[in-house]
């Protein structure tokens, strides 16, 4: 015991540090806390990864069915072409040359808005990478945007009609890739009439997103007539299956009367002609692009008249999307 100059007693004998046992206990507790924090961070990271994976799956599925729905709604949009009494042609889905696109001015001939393929033995030749037994859909229309011939993209087929009473009766329409071929005039007969680009597209499922790199991500893709060739575009990853049911108008009123998965094969039947399709029911199965550790997909998925799929017994999560889409243009003409 010692007295300070201020008269305060100091006991230096009672001041001491941590013992070895106390240090070891502290270290163990710190390790437990660090481990708990590590587990918490790891779980949060896995949860965020899974949430992001699920969000991308849902987004891709919704985007895919939205793209298909909008294209089907617009199929058969042929602008000012006089369709009353027109002949329907069925061009090859992969046609790229003008003569094979299904247009004619005498008699007025227009291509069928839609053509379906089961995706087994009937895959169009220009589709070089296709997921077996998934359906393909060829859709045809004109662009909803008009442009003057001088501003059109050279090499892409465009179509022009006449609104001028002074124009010769023939030709009633012109299809060309050359701006200089368009001579038909507008309603006032004082200006060359605008043109619309002709769009021919095939939608299908490929077994890979970037096939050159050899990935195995099933992907919704589109082949589109562009610059005189069918050009491929990847639209949505993780789309594993695609099927359609076609609503055939059998009495000519513009409404679907019978839904089938393909043509009925009966010669002369209204349900054996793609031009009589007035509605399409889409069935789409999407899956996550990456597997989920510890998850096994034991579910089955209904694709309507096409039956069920699964169980896959793998680590990918899946969702089914379906919607019914009306072909507004062909149905509107009949209604």
Which strand-content bin applies to the residues? 25-35%
Query: Structural class of the secondary elements?
Result: alpha+beta
DSSP summary: helix tally = 2
Average pLDDT value?
A: 91
N/C terminus separation: 111 Å
Q: Main β-sheet: number of strands, strand sense, barrel status?
A: 7 strands, antiparallel
Alpha-carbon Rg, integer = 32 Å
Q: How many β-strands, per DSSP? A: 18
User: What string gives the helices and strands in order?
Assistant: EEHEEEEEEEEEEEEEEEEH
Low confidence ranges: none
Instruction: Please give the share of residues in helix.
Output: 10-25%
Q: Indicate the overall shape.
A: elongated
Question: What is the element layout, followed by pairings?
Answer:
Elements lengths: L1 E2 L5 E2 L9 H55 L12 E3 L14 E2 L2 E4 L2 E4 L18 E12 L10 E4 L11 E4 L18 E12 L12 E8 L2 E9 L1 E10 L9 E3 L16 E11 L13 E2 L5 E2 L8 E9 L1 H7 L1
Parallel strand pairs: 3-5
Antiparallel strand pairs: 1-2, 4-5, 6-7, 7-10, 8-9, 8-10, 10-11, 11-12, 13-14, 13-15, 15-18, 16-17
Overview of the molecule:
With 335 residues, the chain is of the alpha+beta class. Helices cover 19% and strands 31% of the residues. The protein contains 2 helices and 18 strands. It has helices at 20-74, 328-334; strands spanning 2-3, 9-10, 87-89, 104-105, 108-111, 114-117, 136-147, 158-161, 173-176, 195-206, 219-226, 229-237, 239-248, 258-260, 277-287, 301-302, 308-309, 318-326. Strands 6, 7, 8, 9, 10, 11 and 12 form a 7-stranded antiparallel beta sheet that branches. The protein has a 4-stranded antiparallel beta sheet with strand order 14-13-15-18. It starts with a strand and ends with a helix. The model has no long low-confidence stretch (mean pLDDT 91).
């Amino acid at each position: 015991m010692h007295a300070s100059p201020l008269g305060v007693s100091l006991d230096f004998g009672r001041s001491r540090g941590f013992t070895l046992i106390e240090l070891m206990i502290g270290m163990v507790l710190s390790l437990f806390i660090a481990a708990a924090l590590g587990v918490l961070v790891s779980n949060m990271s896995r949860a965020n990864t899974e949430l992001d994976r699920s969000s991308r799956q849902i987004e891709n599925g919704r985007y895919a069915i939205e793209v298909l729905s909008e294209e089907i709604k617009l199929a058969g949009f042929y602008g000012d072409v006089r369709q009353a009494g027109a002949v329907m042609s069925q061009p090859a889905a992969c046609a790229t040359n003008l003569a094979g696109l299904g247009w004619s001015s005498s008699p007025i001939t227009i291509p069928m808005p839609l053509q379906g393929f089961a995706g087994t033995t009937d895959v169009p030749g220009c589709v070089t990478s296709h997921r077996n037994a998934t359906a393909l859909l060829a859709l045809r229309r004109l662009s909803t945007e008009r442009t003057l011939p001088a501003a059109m993209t050279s090499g892409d087929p465009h179509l022009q009609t006449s609104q001028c009473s002074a124009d010769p009766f023939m030709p009633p329409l012109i299809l060309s890739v050359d701006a200089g071929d368009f001579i038909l005039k507008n309603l006032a007969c004082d200006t060359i009439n605008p043109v619309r680009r002709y769009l021919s597209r095939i939608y299908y499922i490929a077994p890979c997103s970037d096939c050159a790199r050899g990935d195995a991500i099933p992907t919704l893709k589109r082949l589109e007539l562009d610059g005189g060739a069918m050009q491929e575009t990847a639209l949505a990853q993780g789309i594993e299956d695609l099927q359609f049911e076609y609503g055939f108008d059998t009495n000519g009123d513009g409404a679907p009367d019978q839904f089938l998965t393909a043509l009925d094969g009966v010669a002369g039947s209204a349900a054996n002609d793609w031009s009589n399709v007035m509605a399409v029911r889409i069935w789409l199965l999407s899956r996550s692009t990456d597997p989920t550790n510890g998850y096994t997909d034991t579910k089955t998925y209904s694709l309507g008249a096409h039956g069920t799929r699964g169980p896959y017994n793998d680590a990918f999560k899946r969702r089914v999307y379906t919607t019914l889409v009306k072909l507004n243009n062909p149905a509107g003409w009949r209604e």
